[in-house]
Amino acid sequence: MRIHISWKALLAVVIFLMAVVLLLRFASRLWTSEAQTGMTISPAPTQSTALTPVAATLAPTNPPGVVTPSALTTSPASSPAAQATPSSSDTLTPAVAITDTPVPSPQPTLRPPTSTPFQPPTPEPTPARNPLVVVAQGFGQRAASVSYAFVVSNPNPDLLAQNVRYQVAAYNADGIVLLTDTDTIAQIGPGQRMGAAKQVVLPSGLAIARIEVLIRPGQFAQAPPLQELPVSNTAFIQGDPPNITAILSNPLSRDLANLRVVGIAYDDVGIIGGGTIELPFAPARGQAPFSIPVITSQVATRVEFFAQVSTAP
């Protein structure tokens, strides 16, 4: 029995094998592109996968006594169909290598936000405050009536002293406290002096030997100096009680009402008494005469008056 294979059948087989090879190559490329999307591609592969198609060879087994047709041993150069037959040495190798173990990509390190500490506003520096100083003090007495007086200096050139609290203690010759009295000085101008005087009554038969003045600073504020009102025609008038008199001038362009005026009497040693009045009226750029009674048993050689107002309108 002789088997005859036509060239058409052989051509169909070759075309089928070529179609299988093309299908395998397309499937390999598709699988490679998907692997590149889901896996990390390394330039130095540790394991590569090669797809090697198995060469198809038509080698039918002839029964004994049957001769193989010459068409099956035709050389590739003599047959166009044989030229299209793929060789067993053809190997499909992927263009890139695929590693089995994915390499994790580095993750950025997130630093915690740095909090900026709160900076409080820097307060403006306040000039150093020098303590108020009592520069003179004294008293006068007639029977049970007493008048004390003292002068306070504000050495701060830029600070106005306000609500200055004071205490006066009167002692006898044995150092026994006979009385105490407290009051407030409304204000003392920067770098200026201010007087305080008051009249009190002692129990009958007591005599004062000395007084002592204590000052509590109060509040300070930056301000210009106060306007010191000038006085003229000062005098000490003997009487019961004596009086100290003067004429106050108002250089301001506004009237002054209820102006506090302090008068202090001195002898050759120091303060011998004093008093305070409230001047009802001082016309603008005008004058106002006044008189202050003083409790003293001595004769004054000079008098001093204190009248200060703010320069603000």
Tags for this model:
313 residues; 2 domains; three-stranded antiparallel β-sheet; 2 helices; 15 strands; 12% helix; 37% strand
Structure description:
- The radius of gyration is 61 Å and the shape is rod-shaped.
- It has helices at residues 7-38, 80-83; strands at 133-142, 145-153, 159-171, 177-188, 193-201, 210-216, 219-222, 227-228, 231-237, 243-249, 256-266, 271-282, 287-293, 302-306, 308-309.
- It is mainly β and 313 residues long.
- Strands 3, 4, 6 and 7 form a four-stranded antiparallel sheet that branches. Strands 1-2-5 form a three-stranded antiparallel sheet, with no helix packed on it. Strands 9-10-13 form a three-stranded antiparallel sheet, with no helix packed on it.
Order of helices and strands: HHEEEEEEEEEEEEEEE
Number of helices: 2
Structural class: mainly beta
DSSP summary, beta strand count: 15
Q: Are there runs of 5+ residues with pLDDT below 50, and where? A: 40-98
How many distinct domains?
2
The helix content, as a percent range, equals 10-25%
Q: Round the mean pLDDT to the nearest integer and report it.
A: 79
Name the shape in a single word. rod-shaped
Oligomer: single chain
Outline the fold blueprint:
Layout: H1 7-38, H2 80-83, E1 133-142, E2 145-153, E3 159-171, E4 177-188, E5 193-201, E6 210-216, E7 219-222, E8 227-228, E9 231-237, E10 243-249, E11 256-266, E12 271-282, E13 287-293, E14 302-306, E15 308-309
Antiparallel strand pairs: 1-2, 2-5, 3-4, 3-6, 3-7, 8-15, 9-10, 10-13, 11-12, 11-14
